[in-house]
């Protein structure tokens, strides 16, 4: 009977260790106060980015309804970016629960998004200058998320496995 309990405990330990190695970090790492604070700030940054993105969409609607022309690119971008904010927030929430994969995705997206979005907006003729400025302001919380995900607290909470 003692052998069966030992076998069951060993099997559970192996399952927990495998799960931790593949999808999560140990609870002591991402629950550290500094890591928790950085993850909370990243979640708030996602919310702010979503609010700014929704405001940008409302600005496009206001400009279009006032009779000014708004190109297709601006409409599509204005509609997609608030949706991306929801996805980014969901990934950040998963990371705050210990998902290393979600953390890596948030970390990568937070670096790539501002460069890609502002870079495309700066191409002459793609969008009006006012919209490029609005998109740049929308990217400021994402830039903050990029810095937060590279902070020492989160690098320690989600160490590289290779």
How do the helices and strands line up, and which of them pair or pack?
Blueprint: H1 2-22, H2 27-30, H3 33-65, H4 72-96, H5 100-121, H6 129-149, H7 152-157
Helix pairs in contact: 3-4, 3-6, 4-5, 5-6
Describe this structure in words.
By secondary structure, this protein is mainly alpha-helical. It is built from seven helices and no strands. The protein has helices at 2-22, 27-30, 33-65, 72-96, 100-121, 129-149, 152-157. Helix 3 runs antiparallel to helix 6, helix 4 (72-96) runs antiparallel to helix 5 and helix 5 runs antiparallel to helix 6 (129-149). The longest helix is centred in the N-terminal third of the chain and has 33 residues, at 33-65. The radius of gyration is 21 Å and the shape is elongated. The two termini are 40 Å apart. The model is unreliable at 1-26 (pLDDT under 50).
Quick overview of this protein structure:
The chain is an all-alpha fold and 162 residues long.
What is the number of E strands?
A: 0
Q: What is the arithmetic mean of pLDDT? A: 83
Low-confidence stretches: 1-26
Structural class: mainly alpha
Q: For the record, give the distance between the C-alpha atoms at the N and C termini, rounded to a whole number.
A: 40 Å
- Provide the gyration radius in Å: 21 Å
Strand content: under 5%
The biggest beta sheet reads:
none
Oligomer: single chain
Count helical runs: 7
């Amino acid at each position: 009977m003692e052998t069966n309990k030992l076998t069951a405990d060993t099997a559970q330990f192996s399952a927990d260790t495998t799960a931790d190695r593949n999808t999560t970090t140990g609870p002591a790492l991402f629950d550290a106060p500094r890591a928790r604070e950085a993850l909370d700030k990243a979640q708030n940054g996602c919310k702010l980015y979503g609010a700014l993105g929704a405001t940008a969409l409302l600005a496009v609607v206001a400009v279009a309804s006032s009779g000014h022309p708004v190109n297709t690119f601006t409409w599509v971008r204005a509609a997609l970016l608030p949706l991306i904010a929801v996805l980014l927030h969901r990934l950040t929430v998963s990371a705050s629960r210990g998902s290393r994969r979600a953390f890596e995705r948030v970390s990568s997206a937070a670096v790539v998004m501002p460069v890609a979005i502002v870079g495309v907006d700066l191409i002459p003729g793609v969008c009006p200058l006012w919209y490029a400025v609005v998109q740049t302001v929308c990217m400021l919380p994402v830039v903050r998320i990029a810095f937060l995900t590279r902070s020492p607290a989160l690098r320690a909470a989600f160490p590289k496995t290779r």
